[in-house]
Amino acid sequence: MDNKTIKNKRSHIIGLLENKRLKSVFQAIKELLSELSDWHYNDKLEEIENGYKYMLQYMQQGVIDPMQRNLYRKFISESYIINDKITDKLLLKDDYNQYYTKRRYFLSQADCINSIYKRLDKDLANISLAEIIEENGDSNNQKNHLRVNIEHETDNLFNYVWTSYNCSGDDESKIVSLFDDIIIPLNIKALLISALTLSLLQYYEEQKLIILLSLINNDNDIIRQRAIIGALLTILKYEKRLELSENIKSRICELKQNSYFINSVITIQTQFIRSRETDKITKKMNEEIIPEMLKMNPSLNKKNTDDIHSLDMSDLDYNPEWEEYLKESGISKKLKEISELQLEGADVLMSTFSNLKGFSFFTKISNWFLPFDKNNSFICDLFANKVSSDAFLSIIDSSRFMCNSDKYSFCLSMLQLPEQQRTIMSDQFAEQNNQMKEIEKAEDSLLPQQNRSEIISNQYLQDLYRFYKLNYHKNEFEDIFNTTLSIYSNNLLSDVFDQDSLYLVAELLFKKKYYKEALSIYQKLLVLNNSDYSLYQKIGYCYQELGEYKDAIQAYINSDIIKKDSPWTLRRLANCYRFIKDYSSAINIYKRYLVLKPDTLSVELSLGHCYLDLKNYEQALIHYYKIEYLEPNNIRSHRPIAWCSFKLQKFEQAEKFYNIILDTNPTSTDLINAGHNLWALGKVDKAISLYKKSLRELPDKINQFSELFLSDKHDLIEAGIEEDDIYIMLDQVIDNEL
Fold first, then answer.
1. In terms of residue numbers, what domain contains 19?
2. DSSP letter, residue 289
């Protein structure tokens, strides 16, 4: 059995367990076990299966067992665990993805978390001593060496925790103790939370989730926010499984009493939704904005052969002519949209930094989750001048719009510049640093606690997004961002959202055009308040956008009952009637609209179309002529007037309007319809000329023209043309094109 089959069988068993198909589960697990030949798991499965058989027998005999429900849930839980363990043991043999490669390494080295911690603890103590020595003027070579060692052991610690499935109780205790150790820096603790999250998303272990849930009560925002996000992702992935654990449910209930947790969950839900827009924003940047901006200066598309060292920084001054170009090209408007999205928390920098993830720094999985640290060995020597380097890195660190991953990318890309240019930049940053510090200090004093937490969670989610979308081994991971990440509909978390927060989420989904999901929330809100006409409006709009017009009609009718004669409601209700071809009902609603807003030309046009569809050409003409009277140059009224006149055999009247259409920019259909009218008038040569012109303009020429021409056969017959003549005319038109 190959690795792909093993993983598919595991997923199949999980599906059976979620649907509580235990007998089928036992059979499917036996198929996996046949590949393993492990008596321990055979015995364990047999124990679960026999216990379930006895429970079924007692049930058949009518025995009332107060423990039956708990036993049943226990059998399901144990089946989840044995499925994971068998899968893991099978894949551990020869799966060479990053997870199992690193797992086998630790097993072969007999390296454990305790030994990694001891080495890390020693290096951390030594670097503290080295910093004291450095202050007295000694060389910092030892410090740099220790820094590299610490980063190496931090990576080991991350990989160990990430791949530590089915780890011992001692390992779990050590993980907990690491978070209480004041010697362990914050960035390492934050990294461990990411390792726990990745581990849980690979294989579920209750104790690891408990660690994350406990860290939500930590005093540090970075730890709390990472723990909340990790816990939420785990709860979303294993919803059915976690419903079986009273321990987990109890801990989640406790957290629901915590206002910080509640506010964070609501905020993170909105960030989850915004993350789904990242691909759209990236596409807009790459396909619309950046190409247009490159047109501003063609030299940007060429390789500059000038000596880069001779660059005069004044050459980069702003050109006032650009502003006019930006306005004319529409870039200004698009940039404003992007800027507004960024202020909302949208990820607008993905396109900028997606091509800057090829540095060796990102070959380590752990570095994708590393909080920005200006002392990191990859970037600490960005400038020769330490003061300038610290100034620059401090400014990057304080950026609220760049996530940690992008901050590293930016600094690493700076290292590709010649030293002279970096030196110029470092001097500029050094001069501005004090002023920047004062601004940051003022901003920080004004920034509410909740906003700080929101910035942290948003940056971390962007780090996660880049990892799942851009890392070299991304295909080895199940992309969490390919799911809806709907916390509000999760059975364990949905009651975190009160009526106001639910409405907030629904409005965001509605704004981003996720109508199906928005609809589900609006329907929940309707249960709480069925007298809100705007809820019915939005439900109707969602149904309409989803193409479910009958449901939309009912929602709009309910809204109209609560708030009579809303023009917005009436217009959309009428449009829905048109979509289901109930033209009579649409006409009645359009007439109500015109009482409220007389002479609305678009509604007059829709009314005319309804009568046209009902073949009431005389009545249709009344509305089309009204548009012609109020707006004589409106081509949208000329076409239907000409066609209705043709249908009523008012051919001279039709010819008048077709001549106006032909003098503008006629379509192929216009040419055909005008030809029909000329033929009915007996002007055969002119009709043939228009038919041939139409044929030549159609992409598929003969086939397409024939289809369009013959679709009007009955209209031509009604206009007095013999049926045989229609086919003769078709041959006449296409004769020279064959």
1. 3-95
2. I
